[in-house]
Prior knowledge:
13% strand, 5-stranded mixed beta sheet, binds pyridoxal-5'-phosphate, 7-stranded mixed beta sheet, Aspartate Aminotransferase, domain 2, 12 strands, globular
Amino acid sequence: MEIADKFKEVETEEETLDPTDWSQLKDLGCRMVVDMMNYLESVRERPVWQPIPNTVKEFFTKPIPTDPEGVDKTYQDFLEKILPYPTGNIHPRFWGWVIGTGTPLGMLAEMLAAGMNPNVGGLDHVANHVEAQVINWFKEIMGFPSTASGLLVSGGSMANLVGLTVARNTMARYEVRKDGLQAATQKMTIYSSEETHLSNQKAIEILGLGSDAFRKIPVNEEFQINIERLKACISEDREYDYHPVCIIGNAGSVNTGAFDDLDTLANICDQENMWFHVDGAFGALAILSPKLRSLVSGINKADSLAFDLHKWMYMPYEVGCTLVRREEDHKKSFSESADYVAHHSRGIAGGEIWYVDYGVQMSRGFRALKVWMGIKEQGIRKYGRLIQQNVEQAQYLEKLIQVSAELEILAPVSLNIVCFRFVVDRLDNSSLNNINKEILIRLHENGIAAPSYTMIDNKYSLRVAITNHRSRREDFDVLVKAVLEIGRELQKSYFPS
Ligand SMILES: Cc1ncc(COP(=O)(O)O)c(C=O)c1O
């Protein structure tokens, strides 16, 4: 008896996750694409958002299936239990937080990327070159030298973490990767305005610097960092033997879309020998519009820059980017060596681009493809026009608010964010806060529109952040009409007749 024959007796049939009937899955795949295209095409006809019924929530508490339910049933569950309950951000009247819209081609690109399923951490394959090309395009757009490096990441939070890691490691004056923060003889400090996004604080905490090391500098009336207070804080810290390492400039702050004076911040960093990181999550993309470009003046002087492509480039989630001026700083912060990832000169382990050396992740998806295809499809100028369009829509909304005595603008409209509230003459601030919060919730629950909210000078503000290529002016008319109607209805309970 042959050796192989002996094992045959105990062998079970080999399995795979591929379909037994490819033609059936191909048909279903075509149907899925058509269903999703119809879903996108008809988005305007649906409510922006609807609450998830309890029965649907319960559906997601069922135990793990041990036996197959089949692809048709699984897709049917998706259609019934998942598809109707999104965040709403693909809708033309979604303007909450800073959430982008996505595109039909972006959806298809995600499918193509998943079909190829490369691991873009390294090795010799074409996805690395696609990512490198995307990064090179953005280096040029942002005015970075061609020798700079970059990495596509999950979003702005990760982009800030990558940039600030390089900042800490480069400025520490000792081998912080090897010796850790225990070896620091002085406490490192980082400076930014009090309007800076929380992801920077998170990064500072993750980096072990401690949130107390984050100096939150007050802002001026335009919500920009107060330069004099910043300088005073740095010099006071030096007196007390702290080690100021980095200033974070805002290119489009999360609350109001304010731009810090990046040129001045870059000069201070130069004089003080500090790292200049810019959080341009959405605002950095204003550079694409010739009319808005001056706002980001100085962004090209950053040592590291974080921005998102899933916000104001309308790409599907997730994709952000970090650029670092000097590649050696970047690589020094993240590269590790091990026998099992040694680079060869030929074969799959060859290739000169290994993104594992530039960030936290080793295994990485092909997020570059949707960006590459989206830019090729439309041309970069179109994105600049759409960004400009969103800014003009913000100005249009500002005018609608200004002509209404019952509405009040709460912060200067410097870009694409409008903060406002419904006001009633004889009501105190606390009552107005309650009314505006209820207006917001009703706008959401009735599926009319989805602004978000923030507090400006203790006033609850409806906050419209427009990073939506589907919005039209008429959508803002709908918003204002609904805010006035709901507000007038709510005020009645304060003045019973
Ligand atoms: C200014 C700013 N920075 C960072 C972030 C975090 O980006 P992400 O949500 O992509 O992680 C945001 C998100 O809104 C932001 O507005």
